[in-house]
Every structure is written in structure tokens, then in C-alpha cells.
Amino acid sequence: MDDATEVPEASRPVTIHMVAASAGVSASTVSRALNFPELVKPGTRERVLETVERLGYQPNRAARSLALGRTASLGLIVPDIANPFFAPFVKVVQARVREANYALFLADTDEDPSTEVELALAMSQQVDGLILCSPRMPGRKLRTIAAKTPVVVANRLSRSVPSIALDFGPGVQQAVAHVHALGHRRCAYLSGPGGSWSNRQRLRAFTAHCESYGIELVVLGPYEPVFSGGYRGADEALAARVTAIFAYNDMVALGVMSRLADRGVRVPDEMSVVGFDDIEVASMTSPPLTTVAIPVDTVAKASAALLLSLLAETTPQRPAAQELATRLVIRNTTGVPKEDRI
Amino acid sequence: MDDATEVPEASRPVTIHMVAASAGVSASTVSRALNFPELVKPGTRERVLETVERLGYQPNRAARSLALGRTASLGLIVPDIANPFFAPFVKVVQARVREANYALFLADTDEDPSTEVELALAMSQQVDGLILCSPRMPGRKLRTIAAKTPVVVANRLSRSVPSIALDFGPGVQQAVAHVHALGHRRCAYLSGPGGSWSNRQRLRAFTAHCESYGIELVVLGPYEPVFSGGYRGADEALAARVTAIFAYNDMVALGVMSRLADRGVRVPDEMSVVGFDDIEVASMTSPPLTTVAIPVDTVAKASAALLLSLLAETTPQRPAAQELATRLVIRNTTGVPKEDRI
DNA sequence: CTGAAAGCGCTAACAT
DNA sequence: ATGTTAGCGCTTTCAG
User: Fold this and answer.
1) Which of chain A's residues have a Cβ under 8 Å away from the Cβ of B84?
2) Per-residue pLDDT tens for A18-61?
3) CB-based contact A274:A303 (threshold 8 Å)
4) Residues B213 and B269 in one domain
């Protein structure tokens, strides 16, 4: 427990006029000394800054926003902060945005598209720009919001709004090739949320690559993209007599593994499991999970950078397509299928 | 990909005066119709609101803040957003704050106390109140910040600043009793960050209860409170010839288990492991982790509620001590020690 | 190089 | 019940 020395009561915050008075100059000079130091004579500037320091002056953001017409804050809207896939995204965006001297508003939609729209609309008026992470709202709504404030969409491709999206192709191709090489010929894809762009893309990629490798793909679900979603998925995959499971994401894969363990099905001996995302815990389970890794940090950085460059009206610095490619991380949940189960 | 129908260009945002003009009233009437509907005649009110709707008027927050002297936003500062212990905290706080019609600024200190101070200071001027989650800054700094804006401290006890802290006693007592009942007599505590209030409290509780149960406690560390911190911890605990390990938190416990598995030490047969926090993944590992559960959601809700009541100047609604108690969740990483290892 | 004055959009006395 | 006015704290022409 910290000690409890008395501390001065909060007094009225010091304004630019107090500084001006105390430094014997006008408010404009203080403003200039702070924002355009080169415009004020070194002597005066020094005196002003010293006074600012002494009085502990901090410009009132609201007043500044009002005068400037910009808020110096950005907004980030994610489906679920506590989701281990989004948390690192939030962290990286926050860091980037902060570096550029913006504050960050955060909101969580609880995976609900209409909440998403509502929050985005509400935020659009109090920020200089918005990052929508994996938005589920219809394209029309997206455009409505983009019309009110600069918007960047992450993890979804949009023609009308600047977006940073992943290329699932490479990772999925590698996953399918890997599983094919091990000898699997009948696999299941455990679908995620029907409305989600990610799910559609992943499903499409798995379908295409399985076809070209001559793997029979059984599409199951949709399942909730969470741990418990994997329970049902595991049971249904077992019933479908596949030898390998591609899960919509790692959480589902973890649920699958847990359920398989409960049912006494050994991974990878009796069933191979491939996750998606490569969230932190994927490498911490036993056995560690084979999964299609997504460069979240890259996506997050790129999203922040894109929004920032939009605001600065500099040429958007888009990442090379290659950086946004997914790739397979082979760990221990994939193996050669047991003959007797084929 | 969403379709790309043309959308009207962003025009200058509509102000209260435009609404006033269009509705044939004064700006004050519009303001009143919006903020104190009962003060304006039903007919006028209706006309105004209809105009507001038609024009899509949204009050400028900066202007409102400036006039009102309040920002309608709160700030939350956490050590690490991506940490599975803090992420749910952020989520719950966000939800609560939002319910009360506040927006939430989020910042991440990257576990650094001086960044923490810096962020808190910067935020203090643009929010109506601040929640500091598990702050590491010295008490003196805490008071400096509390002098500038209402502050609530979570996961740490403070005499000078309103705080919501946990009672580690019950959970630790149960953990020690549990392990004692299984027959363990020599255990290790893997310490977390030296400066952290949580670590001090946990260590103190383990020391006290082990003493009273006649368990010899070997204190190791400190270790980084992350997965890899558990690697070293596992090795050192093994070297110390203990039969059970109390980890500072679940991440460390997971690291311990991973390392033990690598070294071929079976859990719980050859080593029992007890975590702390009960983060989501604790129940997803195999074997599932025995751990001291913390009611994070309760702490988060309570913190938000406390700050909100401070701002509303209502009587703070503090949670009953009992709600903030920790408790042991027994899963499968604790068992009877093998004689030959004692 | 510096000061005076106007204005950002809104609210809240104060009139009427 | 509604309009007028002043002012929140800052920036920014515009003068000098």
C-alpha cells in the first residue's frame, strides 16, 4: 500500500491566458511558442516555455479540437477485445497510433453487426479517423460511415473503403499440401460464422486447394468461432469419418482437441488437426498446434499506417502483398493417418 | 467484397445553427429540445427533432465538452492489452462505461511504470476519469494524477486513491490446504515481477499459509510473468526438489508445464502445478490447470462502477468483500506426490 | 515579432 | 416557452 502524504487539492486547470499573464505576453504568443516555436523570438519563447513548465500548463484538448477542427484521436472497433486473435491487434494499433500522437478510442461490438454500425456512427463524430477490424456490417453501411470520417477496414477487402486484407491462399495451399503429403484424402472444414468475410475466404481457399490436390472436403458447421464450438465440430468430424480437420480458427481447433481427448481419440495418430490464426496459445498446448499463421501484427501496423497516411494526406504506404500472406506453421497435431481409420 | 455504389461526398458537418435555421427556431431551442425536452413545447420539440433527424445532425463533441467542462469520455490504462488476464478486464470496463454513455480511451503501458505515468498524465486532461489497472507507479505519482482527475485503481490497494483490490487470502489458503491434503510438504513459489503489488500479496499469502500448514516453501524467481518465464521456473523448481509448484500466474504455470513435458516430467504424477488467475486457456490445456481463480469480471465491473459513481457524485457502490475473494479451482494438474521423488 | 479580435459549436444564464 | 448574449480555451487571421 502506498503512503498517504497529503497532496494539494485539485485547483482549476491552468489556461493559456494564465500562462500569458504570468509570462507577460499575449495568449497568441504562448500558442505560437508552443505550436510554431520558430515564429517567436528566442528570448520570449524561452520565457514562455519556462512559465508553461512552471505552471504545469496543458492545453485543453476540447478547445484545441474545436478551434482546429481535429480531435487528435482515432477510433478502433473490434468484434471482441478478449478474443486472443483481436487483443494483439488492438495492442499494436494502440502503440502505432500513440506514436503518432493520437489517442485511441476503443469499442467492442460483442460480435454484433448492428452494434458495430451504431458504435461506428457514434464514434465517427469524435475522431479524426476510424479503424474497423473485421467488420461484419454490410458494405452499404460501411460506405455511410466512410462518408463521415476517414475509415480503414482491416481483415476484409472492400472496393469502396481503404482496406488491409489478408491473402489466405498461400497458407491454405501449404496446409492442404502438407496434409496431402501425409496421406490424408478425406478432410473436414469446420466453418466459422456464416456472415464473416474471413470464413468465406477460408472456405473458398480450402475448397479450391483440396479439389486440386484430390482431397475430398467435407464442410461442416457453421460453429461458433470459440473453444466450445470445437466440441460439436469434433464429434461431427468423427462421424464424417475424416482423418484430418481444418478448423475455422485456433480456438475451435483447441476445442476440437479437447473433445477428441475426452473421447479417447489420439492426436495426431488418429486424427490430424490444423488450426488457423496462430494465436499465442497455439504453441502452448500439448501437443502444440499445427496452424495457418496470420501476420496480425503486420495487419495491425499496416492498418494504423494506412489511416495515418490518409490523415496526413501523404501517399498511403501499403505493405507488400507478400507481407500479408499467411503461411503454415507445422507443429505436432498433424501426422500420418492410421490405415484402419481410413 | 462489398459492392461499390456511389455515395455522396462528405460535406461540412451540420451544426446546431443549421438545424435551428431549418426548423425556424433559435440554436438554444434546438439545444434544449435535445438535452431537456421537457423545457420545450411539444409542437416545437417535434419539429426540431424531426429536423435533427432529417439533417442527420450530431452535436460536435469538442464544442460540447468545451461548453460543459466535461468530455464524456473515460480512460483506461493497462500494462498489456494482449495479456489474457487484462483483455477481459478491458472488455468488461468498455462495456460498462459505454452503457453509461461514456467513450473509452485505451492505453497500454507495455508493463513500464514510467510509460504508465506519462500516459496517465497525458490522458488526465482529456477524460472525466481514469481507471488504472494494476498500476506499478509509485504511490506519490498516483496521487499526483489523482489530483488532476478522478481516478480508480484496480488490482492494487491504495489508501489515498479509491481502489478495488482482491483478497488473495481465501484462494491461496485453499490451494495450500489442497496441496497439503494431497501429501505435499515441500513446494516452490515462482515469483512474479518484484515491484508488483500482486506478487507481494501472493507471496505473503503463500508464505503465511504454508507456514501454518507445515509446508516448506522455496521461493524462486522473480520470473517474467509470461509463458517463457515458466521454463526457467520449472528447471529451478526441479532442482530444488519440490513436489509442487505455485506459479505467480497461469501463463507461467503453462510455461512450467510445457518445460516439464519437454523434460519428461509427468504432471501431476511427478510434479503438481497450481496456477493463478484462471485465465480462459487454463481450462483448455491438457491436463486442465488447477488454479487460484480471480473474479476479473467483478473487479472490472466494480472499478467502472466506482469511477462512474464518483463522477455522478452518488454514493460509491462498493462490492462486498466476498465478491472480491479468490478461490481455488481444482482441475487436473495437482495430485498425490510420488514417494520416490520426495 | 507580437497583440487584438474573431470564431470554432455548443450551453446556460438572462431576458422577454 | 423561446430568443439573445456571453463565454468555454484555443488558434489564427489581421494589424502594427
Assistant:
1) 84, 87, 280
2) 999 999 999 999 999 999 999 999 999 999 999 999 999 999 99
3) no
4) yes
Q: Are B336 and B301 found together in one domain?
A: no
**Averaged pLDDT of chain A:** 93
| Predicted confidence (pLDDT) at residue B318 exceeds the cutoff of 80 | no
Enumerate the H helices of A149-249 as residue ranges.
169-182, 197-213, 229-239
**What's the CA gap between A175 and A327, in Å, rounded?**
8
In a domain, residue A65? The reply is no
- To 10 degrees, what angle do helices B27-35 and B16-23 make? 100
User: Which residues are CB-neighbours of A283 under 8 A, at least 6 positions away?
Assistant: A289, A331
Hey, what's the cell of B104?
A: 473509452
**Where does a domain end: A37, A59, A81?**
A59
- The closest alpha carbon to A164, from A257, A296, A265, A49, belongs to A296
Nearest to B78 by CA among B70, B87, B69, B66: B87
Task: Tell me which chain B residues have a C-beta less than 8 angstroms from the C-beta of A255.
Answer: 284
Domain count, chain A: 3
Compute the distance between CA of residue A153 and CA of residue A166 in angstroms, rounded to an integer: 12
pLDDT at B31 exceeding the cut of 50:
yes
Task: Choose one of A12, A31, A59: the last residue of a domain.
Answer: A59
Instruction: Give chain A positions within 8 Å (CB) of B256.
Output: none
Diameter of chain A measured on Cα atoms: 91
Using a 7 Å cut-off to protein CB atoms, list the covered nucleotides of chain C. 1-5, 7-13
CB contact under 8 A, A104 and B103: no
B26 sits within 7 Å of strand D by its CB: yes
A162 and A267 in a single domain? The answer is: no
Has residue A192 been placed in a domain? yes
Q: Say what the pLDDT of residue A10 is.
A: 54
How many Cα atoms within 13 Å fall on the side-chain side of residue B261?
16
Q: Could you tell me if A12 and A161 lie in one domain?
A: no
How far apart are the CA of B242 and the nearest CA of chain A, in angstroms? Answer: 23
Same domain, A138 and A205: no
CA B192 – CA B199 distance, rounded (Å): 6
Asked if the model's pLDDT at residue B323 lies above 80, the reply is no
d(CA B99, CA B75): 15
Q: What is the largest CA-CA distance in chain B?
A: 91
CA distance A189 to chain B (A): 21
* Segments forming the whole domain that contains residue A101: 73-166+296-325
- Bases of chain D with protein Cβ within 7 A: 1-5, 7-13
Specify the residue for cell string 483483455.
B87
Using alpha carbons, list the distances in angstroms from residue A104 to A90, A99, A174, B275.
Answer: 10, 11, 37, 33
Omega cis (within 30) before B287: yes
Same domain, A193 and A333: yes
Q: Residue B329: beta bridge partners? A: B291
Task: Please tell me whether residues A110 and A153 are part of one structural domain.
Answer: yes
Distance of residue B323 Cα from the nearest chain A Cα, in angstroms: 21
| Same domain flag for A27 and A127 | no
Distance from C-alpha of B308 to C-alpha of B305, rounded to nearest angstrom: 5
Residue of B107, B104, B103, B105 whose CA lies nearest to B80: B107
Considering only CA atoms, which of A264, A266, A315 is closest in space to residue A287?
A266
